[in-house]
Amino acid sequence: MKSLFLTFVLFGVSMACASNAVDEHNHKVSQLKVTTLSTMLANRGIGEWGYSALIEVDGRKILFDTGNRPETVLQNANDLRIDLSDVEDVILSHNHGDHTGGLEALTKALRKKNPKALSLLHVGKGIFQQRARRDNHMLAMKNRLQQDGVVFKEYTQAQQIFPGVWLTGHVPRVHPEKNWGRNGRIVTADGEIEDNIPEDMSLVINTEQGLVLISGCGHAGIINTMEHIVKQTQVENVFTAIGGFHLVNADDKHLTWTAEKLKSFGLENLMGAHCTGINSLYTLRGLLNADRKNVVVGSVGDEFSLKNGVRPGGIAR
Asked: Which UniProt keywords apply (predicted)?
């Protein structure tokens, strides 16, 4: 009888642990606000060819990419009256300078107020690989920042880094979206290979309304990325996409294919900044039968929140 009782107790504990694991995996955030700090359009602050956004989620701040020029994100944050000194986590979507250029200047400035500012960098594995015919600036930057106590964490697999907050890790290139430069090469022990930006990764937020996707350039492809995160999170709809999606050079055939795929994910809101392309954004708006309130060109200072939805910058309305 005692052994039977113990069996039931252990079974109950294991079921509770399993339930907690499922709950943790399926955690949905209750508060989310995304503010664009770097992109080309700006009616407040500085516009540039680059991308950065501040993610405020359930009381935590995350900086996604750091813009191009050293001063842009810091200046725009000041103009928008946003304090970045309490941000400790930074996500770098990939190695390109228009997403990493502001990192060192930001770290130096913000640490005058908070020694732990920008102390943990989340990056995709491959970001430090040597590129052919050009130096990978990330290698030298990594060495300098590590001397100042910055920690780099590399990812290959999708992972939940905070409750309801996911990084995609490496995204399988199932569809030939191929939205990266064709001339880049990576140096390996076996010779040079095509540089398809293997480290490219995006941020995903799980909410009661569905998934929110934040992308720097989306070199892995917006559809490849969405299919990957739906599989990993087991949440079927991606109702909001924010950031750069490198559709600036996409032809009408590719944009039509993209729009049909986006419909299948239940996409409602699209804030297409940086390399999405203004004309491509407007074309997608028509193909999605969306209105100007929900599908907008990204601009400095625009916002998306679970409470208020899309709030475009004045220049993009």
From this structure: Signal
Task: Give the pair of three-digit tokens for residue 257.
Answer: 């294919």
- Across all residues in the chain, what is the average pLDDT? 92
Spatial CA neighbour of 52 closest among 29, 41, 31, 68: 68
Report if residue 4 sits inside a domain. no
What is the spatial distance between Cα 240 and Cα 253, in angstroms, rounded to a whole number? 23
φ, ψ of residue 150 to 5 degrees: the values are: -75, 135
pLDDT exceeds 70 at position 116: yes
Residue 13 maps to a domain: no
Residue 282 in any domain: the answer is yes
Q: Residue 151's domain spans which residues?
A: 30-316
| Number of domain units in the chain | 1
Residue 52 sits at φ, ψ, to 5 deg, of -165, 145
E-strand spans in the chain? 32-38, 52-57, 60-64, 89-92, 120-124, 151-155, 159-162, 165-167, 185-188, 191-194, 203-207, 210-215, 238-243, 269-272, 295-297, 303-305, 309-311
Q: Find the CATH number of the domain harbouring 258.
A: 3.60.15.10
Measured between alpha carbons, how far apart are the two ends of the chain, in Å? 72
Return the pLDDT at 17: 42
Per-residue pLDDT tens digits for 198-238: 999 999 999 999 999 999 999 999 999 999 999 999 999 99
pLDDT tens digits for range 101-110: 999 999 999 9
**What pLDDT is attached to residue 24?**
67
Q: Is residue 54 part of a domain?
A: yes
* Other CB atoms within 10 Å distance of the CB of residue 307: 7
Question: What's the Cα-to-Cα distance from 30 to each of 12, 127, 179, rounded to whole Å?
Answer: 30, 32, 33
pLDDT at 23: 53
